[in-house]
Amino acid sequence: MTLNGWxxxxxxxxxxxxxxxxxxRFMAAVxxxxxxxxxxxxxxxxxxxxxxxxxxxxxxxxxTEYGLSMLAFSLVxxxxxxxxxxxxxxxxxxxxxxxxxxxxxxxxxxxxFTTNTNWQAYAGETTMSYLTQMAGLAYQNFMSAAAGIxxxxxxxxxxxxxxxxxxxxxxxxMTRATLWVLLPVCLVGALALVSQGVVQNFxxxxxxxxxxxxxxxxxxxxxxxxxxxxxxxxxxxxxxxSQEIIKQFGTNGGGFFxxxxxxxxxxxxxxxxxxxxxxxxxxxxxxTATLGQMTxxxxxxxxxxxxxxxxxxxxxxxxxxxxxxxxxxLADTDQQSGAMCPGGNMxxxxxxxxIASSVLFxxxxxxxxxxxxxxxxxxxxxLGGLVPLVNMMLGEVIFGGVGAGMYGILIFxxxxxxxxxxxxxxxxxxxxxxxxxxxxxxxxxxxxxxPLVVLVFTGISVVSPAFGTSSIWNPxxxxxxxxxxxxxxxxxxxxxxxxxxxANTPWYNVTLAAxxxxxxxxxxxxxxxxxxxxxxxxxxxxxxxxxxxxxxxFASLLVGVxxxxxxxxxxxxLSLGPIVEHFLMRAGTTF
Amino acid sequence: xxxxxxLSIWEPALVRxxxxxxxxxxxxxxxxxxxxxxxxxxxAGLTTVLLVSHWFKGAAAFGFELQITLxxxxxxxCANLAEAMAEGRGKAQADTxxxxxxxxxxxxxRADGTxxxxxxxxxxxxxVVIVRPGEFIPSDGEVIEGVASVDESAIxxxxxxxxxxxxxxxxxxxxxxxxxxxxxxxxxxxDPGHTFLDRMISLVxxxxxxxxxNEIALNILLxxxxxxxxxxxxxxxxxxxxxxxxxxxxxxxxxxxxxIPTTIGGLLSAIGIAGMDRLIQHNVLAMSGRAVEAAGxxxxxxxxxxxxxxxxxxxxxxxLPLPGVTESDLADAAQLASLAxxxxxxxxxxxxxxxxxxxxxxDLAAHAAVVVPFxxxxxxxxxxxxxxxxxKGAADSVAKYVRANGGTPSTELDAIVQRIARAGGTPLVxxxxxxxxxxxHLKDVIKGGMRERFTALRAMGIKTVMITGDNPLxxxxxxxxxxxxxxxxxxxxxxxxxxxxxxxxxxxxxxMTGDGTNDAPALAQADVGVAMNTGxxxxxxxxxxxxxxxxxxxxxxxxxIGKQLLMTRGTLxxxxxxxxxxxxxxxxxxxxxxxxxxxxxxxxMRLRTPESAILSAVIFNALVIVxxxxxxxxxxxxxxxxxxxxxxxxLLVYGLGGVVAxxxxxxxxxxxxxxxxxx
Lengths: 591, 679
Known about the structure:
The complex is a heterodimer of chains A (591) and B (679).
Chain A: H1 3-31, H2 39-53, E1 61-62, H3 63-87, H4 103-114, H5 124-127, H6 130-160, E2 166-168, H7 170-195, E3 206-219, E4 225-235, H8 241-249, H9 270-294, H10 298-325, H11 354-367, H12 382-393, H13 404-423, E5 429-430, E6 433-434, H14 437-462, H15 476-491, H16 506-536, H17 552-586
Antiparallel strand pairs in A: 1-2, 3-4, 5-6
Helix pairs in contact in A: 1-9, 1-11, 2-7, 3-4, 3-6, 3-16, 4-16, 6-7, 6-8, 6-9, 6-13, 6-16, 7-8, 8-9, 9-10, 9-11, 10-11, 10-12, 10-17, 11-12, 12-15, 12-17, 13-14, 13-17, 14-15, 14-16, 15-16, 15-17
Chain B: H1 12-24, H2 28-31, H3 35-57, H4 62-103, E1 105-109, E2 115-119, E3 128-131, E4 141-145, E5 147-151, H5 153-156, E6 162-165, E7 172-173, E8 178-181, E9 184-188, H6 196-205, H7 213-234, H8 236-242, H9 249-259, H10 262-281, E10 284-286, H11 289-297, E11 300-304, E12 310-321, H12 327-338, H13 344-357, E13 370-372, E14 380-385, E15 388-393, H14 395-404, H15 411-422, E16 426-432, E17 435-446, H16 450-459, E18 463-467, H17 472-482, E19 486-488, H18 493-505, E20 510-514, H19 520-525, E21 528-532, H20 537-542, E22 545-547, H21 555-592, H22 610-627, H23 629-634, H24 643-675
Parallel strand pairs in B: 11-18, 11-20, 18-19, 20-21, 21-22
Antiparallel strand pairs in B: 1-2, 1-3, 3-9, 4-7, 4-9, 5-6, 5-8, 10-22, 12-17, 13-14, 14-15, 15-16, 16-17
Helix pairs in contact in B: 1-4, 3-4, 3-9, 4-6, 4-9, 4-10, 4-22, 7-9, 9-21, 9-22, 10-21, 10-22, 11-21, 12-13, 21-22, 21-24, 22-24
């Protein structure tokens, strides 16, 4: 570990801290429909949208109507994306003439982008036409992120409400999340990315002559070895910057290219790398301040922020330590860091990012349910790879996906407050809302879903040689981790891939799509029911007998509950995956 | 505060009866009401079936499997024992009482004064009975003649006798208790089947105990955790197969039972029963567990001034003479006017005169005195003696009297009267015919220790409101002196009701005590309404608790018991979950040691063998339930602290302690069983 590395990590966290309050207050104003400085431009557009779509902006919805609207909207979006992929061969903006996508892959991708997961069982540049990328995938990047923000706002509104049945209007929240929050930041961010060299065009792929032609050997159909000389390279193009920026701000993570943020056209410079990481956390961090603002308890917002920041630092420290320590089996290799050498375990990492920026990116992208990657997690040391996996297993609440992180952590807050309340001899209250049987029931349902999906599908896959283990590239504990990572990534709606798993098979395409849908919508439904129930309650005024949710003690308790629930659920399988792999590596065995 | 218990927790008779009940409770139809322990029983059943088949086949690890199975059953029995013992304590008391109820005969006094012997069960309300030393009091009632020391241990568990006497606060007696010395005459206040005894028996054994709201919520959390661990353990088998180390069902069930929250699951209902039991030990009868829980949530306590905050009576504090009158003259006149006054106020004037001016009592008969008693019309009392005519009374009445005799009350008098009223006292003006002598300052005397209790309540975040019929000036002064947060002066029952509703509208929970019929609506409206046993039937029916001691201050203890009940559940839940960390470190390396010897690095307790590791964890898991029975029955220690401080303490003790304790416990058990050669 180097001083330079630590400065990068801490400066990053400082930048996130700085943007929290301004962005959070701005969002609070946007969703309270107060006036903001963007109103002169966006106000008229908003009104036109409502007039064209026939939305009655003053209609307030109960949680059931809100939920049904969200489900209907997601279903239609998903079907649209499926159709677009299947039909892309006959549609315009397809200079490479890419054919329609196979049904199971199209289904998987449609589910993936609708759920803000952006699991990619395909390589972007060889599968998706420009039209699919823009009108299908980028569109979903915006909509799934906007839906996440809207749902987080609903939960916050419910906490702040006093004896109310309604929680707001889904269509209005979606529109305002898109127009006021996502579009402006993406517009500015995309231009910044272009300035760093991210491409933005509709050109067909370029063929360029190699400076140094290469000779490769392949085996032909008759078993004869054939030598071939490669003299040119195909360089993929496309409208990348516009999709790249929402991929980060919306914590979607689906890369335009297969190499994702390790590709020089997606992430060309250290500055674009920092911008990407900042964008991943920005809105989720801001939402903690929105929580503080809307519940009139800014310090509660900071307590939640603090719990998230603690878990983030714990993760990045572990991963950085593991990667910087390198591989003990290469004891005779110089793995010390120096002016000309990053040191540590550089396998699978981009030389232009080095160790610190790679582990930082890996931690951030799995803390938030982004899933963009700038290094191969599969090539991390066992403990370095454990960190992204655990981050996802904790429920994507360390800042988390835009909106999803907020409502996810609020569910943990409800559980933490429940236990704390009992421990101080009071019916538990959260910001004046009594937490009762129904609330605990919904919170537990929401927490149960992800582990259930991950453990069941991973369990089936590891004992099924025909369709399960046949896809893994490495034997032993590492192979188990590859499958476990895939389902965790899917169910937690992260979308990053560990690599080392051929996931574009009917079994994985269908079950991963199911994991993603269940992991998103079966969390949202109990969450909304919980919100609806909380909104109905009266607010109990705080007293000294009320456990304060603004203190470091509360933040520690919240961290404790998140870690205990996550670790207790996944410890057995982790001990057979990355943990045993770590001990085996130290004993001299790798996979 | 907490009374000594006559029944120790490990009372052999209780444990014996509990063990029998514990076995009886194995019935799956009973167990299913406790989801966590039902899972354990199902696991134990499964391993038993496998064990039988292995016995016929002759499995290699039979000894280990047998021990696991036995300990799994022991876990279920330990949990059942905890519940049975909690119930048993109440039952044992009720059984004694039922015996008393059926076997007692009563000496009933007829209207003509003659007596007859009748069965206690035939007594009706308003019958008058005579109870002699050594006899049981046949029914609930009120002492109308005599004083007696009464042994109430049968109901309250308190072995020290209490005094019951005619008149005053301690006149209520309970059927089934025993007169130790002296005789009393009791007017029966309850019809057969409606005595405290009947109600207590039905509470303990009658209809199934209703789960309280927080208990239901906690049960959901525990069931949820059980499902999580069930998933984790069931899916562990495919991972184990992939790793080349398929696990035996015995080991998997052992892991599951260790992980699910059996500690709290096994003790949950015992905690609830014990909470109700603690209330009964404090002589409070709660109509529902819901009310006990609500007591822990109370934000606002409404306390009647008289009898709760202050002693029942005002007392003379000083003599304030008008100009031209000496203090001793005033004291002398005041004493004269009060000699025949048998009210506590009157007696306190005589006492003060004697303490401050050495004025002794006088023999009224020798002076041919004429006593003028207090009437509602004159609102004065006094005495005519040796030609003197001394009066004392309310300022305006005495002024009228002086004017009628041709005198003029001075402006100084007004000033003194105003000053006393502002200070929260009652001015009593003393006059002799046309001349006002001065004023006696009657003061409310705050009960000892009340200020400290209110401070403690404030630290717990509970607001105290004093209810009084006094004017706002007086009320404010007393409120300040007693240290209550707020007061309601010149309170009518309607005002009281309005205050409760206002607090409830803003989301607060209100507790109050009351005894009069006009308190009944407010008692019904309050979230916790404690009726005094000496109070009217209407009040008792409206409230959700009855205090047999008729001590309004007890509200404070009720709040503490409510809090303690929730805290015990919360802390044991935390402890139970925190335990899992150590159990993982014991069992997981043991399970996979053959497939992955490298995992021994996780065996940080250095447990001897895989079998001893798993067995130790299971044994620890069963024994910890028994070890925590006393805590569950007594409740965790409660200190009035702000919530944040309480949480910090409980997290340290039960959270951190819950992580550390099993590491030590499992290690010790491992050493013991390997030494004994059991694994």
